[in-house]
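Researcher: I'm preparing a figure for a lab meeting and need a structural model of a single chain. I don't have an experimental structure, so a prediction will have to do for now. The sequence is pasted below. Please return the structure as C-alpha cells so I can convert it later.
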Amino acid sequence: MKDTLLKIKELAASYADYTAGNLSKLVKIRSLSLGETQVAEELKRQMLEAGFDDARIDKLGNVIGRIGNGKKILAFDGHIDTVDVGNMANWDSDPFSGVISNGFVLGRGTVDQKGGPAAFVTAGRILKDLAFDKDLTIYFTGTVIEEDCDGLCWKYLVEEENITPDFVVITEPTNLNIYRGHRGRMEIEVTFKGISAHGSAPERGKNAIYMASRACLEIEKLNERLASDPFLGKGSAALSEFISGSPSLCAVSDYAKIHIDRRLTWGETKESAVSEIEAIVKDMDAEVVVLQYEETSYTGLKYGMEKYFPTWKIAEDHPLVVNASKAYSGLFGKKPHIDKWTFSTNGVTINGYYKIPCIGFGPGDEVLAHAPNEKVPVNDLVVASAFYAALAHFIAG
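Model: Understood. Here is the structure written out cell by cell.
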C-alpha cells in the first residue's frame, strides 16, 4: 500500500494543471439550480476523457460516472449548480472567468462546489492509470438542484436510479479536513390572518402585522432555549422573510407571513420544531406549515420533496472515518483534523434519510461559499484528488 500511495501522490501532483484546467472549464459555465445543462455535459465529457468505464446523465440531470463493477459501492458526490453572484461591485474579477492565477482558480463555484468534482475526475484518472481492479464499484455523481433543495438529487438517485452506496464522500469544501456531520434544517412558514378596517379606526380590525411581530419576537427568544449537542452545536431559528398585505395603505393589515430558517441539532426533529412554533402562535389566527419543494429540472422532469432536511452525524470510530484517516495519514504523514460543516449538504438525505454512512472531504474553505471573490488553491485540488484515489484503495481493502 505504501508504494501505491506514493504513486497516487505523484500522479495527483503531475495532474495539477489538468485538474485546475478542468475546474476552470466548469467555472466558465454559468449553472444556477435548474439551469445545469451545459455544465453537466462538460463534466460528463471530462469523465469520459479521464477513462471512466461509464458516464451518463439521468432523467433529473445528475451526471453519474462509474469505475469498476464490484459488490461494494463507494460514491463521491459533488453538486454542479451554484448560487448567483450577487452584487457585481463586490467582485474583483469576472465570476465566470475561471482564471488560474497565483496558485488559485478564481470564480463562482470554485469552492461551492465544482472544485470537488474536478478533483474526483482526476482521482478517477489516477485509478485508471494504476489499473485499479478491486472488488469495488465507484460512482462519481455531479448532482443538481442542491442549492435550491439540498438532498433532492440523492432522493432521486436512491429512489429512482436505485443507487444505494455502502459509503459516500461528499466533496463540499472542508478546508481538507474530514467532516462527519452537520446540523439539519427545515423551512417553516407561518401565515397570520387578520381583519381589515379603515386606518383611521384600527380598533375595528385585527392587525396581522401585530400578530406576526409578536411571534417574531418570541421566535428570537426561542433561540435562548433550543437544544445543544457537544459536537454539532446549538439549534437555531432565523427569520428570513416578513411579508404583509392589506386592502390599502390606509387600512389595517389582514395578512402577514413569515419564513423561518430552522437549524436542527442532534435530537431535534421536524415534529419538535413545528410544535415550538405552534406553541408561540397558539392564541393567534395562524397556520404553521413545513414547505414543499417541487420544480422542473433542466431535463424537463418535475420532482420535489418536503423541505425538512434531517440532522446527521457518524461516530469518529466509524469504519469510514477510520479508513479516511488512514488514507490521509498514509498520504501526508500527519493526522487529519476531524470536524463538521456549519452549513447543510446532500448528507441530509444520504445519511439523514437513508442512513448511508458518509463523510465530507473537499477542496477550499467553506467561508468562501456564496461569497464574492470565491477561489480555491490548486494545491487543495491536488490533495483532494490524491485523497479520493487513496480512499478507494482503503475501502476496497
